[in-house]
Amino acid sequence: xxxxxxxxxxxxxxxxxxxxxxxxxxxxxxxxxxxxxxxxxxxxxxxxxxxxxxxxxxxxxxxxxxxxxxxxxxxxxxxxxxxxxxxxxxxxxxxxxxxxxxxxxxxxxxxxxxxxxxxxxxxxxxxxxxxxxxxxxxxxxxxxxxxxxxxxxxxxxxxxxxxxxxxxxxxxxxxxxxxxxxxxxxxxxxxxxxxxxxxxxxxxxxxxxxxxxxxxxxxxxxxxxxxxxxxxxxxxxxxxxxxxxxxxxxxxxxxxxxxxxxxxxxxxxxxxxxxxxxxxxxxxxxxxxxxxxxxxxxxxxxxxxxxxxxxxxxxxxxxxxxxxxxxxxxxxxxxxxxxxxxxxxxxxxxxxxxxxxxxxxxxxxxxxxxxxxxxxxxxxxxxxxxxxxxxxxxxxxxxxxxxxxxxxxxxxxxxxxxxxxxxxxxxxxxxxxxxxxxxxxxxxxxxxxxxxxxxxxxxxxxxxxxxxxxxxxxxxxxxxxxxxxxxxxxxxxxxxxxxxxxxxxxxxxxxxxxxxxxxxxxxxxxxx
RNA sequence: GAUUCCGUAGCUCAGCUGGUAGAGCAUCUGACUUUUAAUCAGAGGGUCCCAGGUUCGAACCCUGGCGGAAUCACCA
Length: 528
Description:
Layout: H1 6-20, H2 36-42, H3 45-48, E1 61-74, E2 77-84, E3 87-94, H4 102-110, E4 116-125, E5 131-142, E6 152-154, E7 157-159, H5 165-170, H6 172-178, H7 180-202, E8 206-207, E9 213-214, E10 226-229, E11 234-238, H8 243-251, E12 256-264, E13 276-285, H9 289-308, E14 312-315, E15 318-321, E16 327-330, H10 331-339, H11 348-357, H12 368-380, E17 388-394, E18 410-418, E19 421-428, H13 433-448, H14 459-466, E20 472-478, H15 479-487
Parallel strand pairs: 3-5, 8-12, 16-17
Antiparallel strand pairs: 1-2, 1-4, 2-3, 4-5, 6-7, 9-11, 10-11, 12-13, 13-20, 14-15, 17-18, 18-19, 19-20
This protein binds one RNA strand of 76 nucleotides through helix 1, strand 1, strand 2, strand 3 and strand 6.
């Protein structure tokens, strides 16, 4: 058994004292009729404010519930701040206004900051002009046995703000109620996903679900997580992308399908990478990547509008505008513009020379596509702040994309770069089964050379393509990154509720293996 | 995986060139029926992340480990 801190012991004693009065510290429900924000919004001095005799034209009675965040006791009356899902409201608790005996018997001594309570009362404005609820009934709904961090604020200055990242990620439940802007971020994230979904639904695309557990992983270059199915005694992989399954559905005759779901990649963690992350993938039949660029512009603008009411956002001092149209520039042109080197038609060795001239580390295992990608990543990508379509990638980097209709060695693919980071990736989908087989075979050669991110041949996918897939445009959007951009967060952990962390040593388990005789004793805290 | 920085009370932090710990808020006791970082008076609370080492003596110096952050590498 973990040793309790002083404050935890005091709270447990408080709980016992409450139970000794036949009060359940964890009752079953509370009838909520109002929320902090709506009360503040709806209060009208003309009709709700009581006069000197305590009578108002139209009493504004409410029933609210939430967590006690502050408690200011002044003898026979107190103010508490109650936090609910909408925000905070002050409650005036006077001894003679609530249940008889409750003020001195329970409220003053036994209710703590952090406890969750239900309050009935009427709304009024205090002498200091603060809209408050004058409690007529106050009920404990859940006792908090741990003290919560107390954050205070005066004149815009926040005191004792909980800033410790580890604390905040490990105990997100606390982070959410002590840092209001954290909740806002996740509300925005939900809005973003819902705006995306309704945008796609309105276009008539079908939301589908495809397997997370896959016998062959594919659709991206990444290392997978591996797991095992006992009954079938088979290795399975957690998907690294939805792509190949969604395109099978296009073969099946759906003309527009999308999926919003988690992908899993077994790679390092960073400000931009969490091993599980959310992707939206969309495939539309009979379209190509030019069409998809138009769609992406429209979609992102709509999303920005639905979150902010305008098509722009401030991130790290940059004002980013999503207003259409966005700049479109071929990858090699963008590189030429920034570095002066024209890479078109250059051989692998010529590219390596240019790479070295640009002071990049080029080794013999890197193919020409990889070198181009390095140059782009180093000299172009970080400088693209406004949303920009970078188009036409080397074929070796894009084994699932269709060859460019005009440009030899390239594919019809684009990425959108914004604030120096990729936010989506799309192409005209490769639907020639024989070219696809050849591309897979190239991947296998890479795998044999030791590239553990190269794709495997997916025979079933090839079989599907052999039945005929219409020309198709495909898109993948990193939802976490898009959320970062739209909410101005600079770490992916701030847009994922429970980011992956190393396991912590659980409280009270440091000596859990040693015998502990005190456990045998029955704990009787009920009687007091 | 590499490098740098960080880890002291429930929270936010201080702790000088090594002399075994302090503040504010929170908590406890008392006062106070319109306060708002409420106020006033008093009190308690710490395996200084862990394990070794150096030293008469370590929160502080050294070594190793654990955890976090940033940067890099890989990627979305």
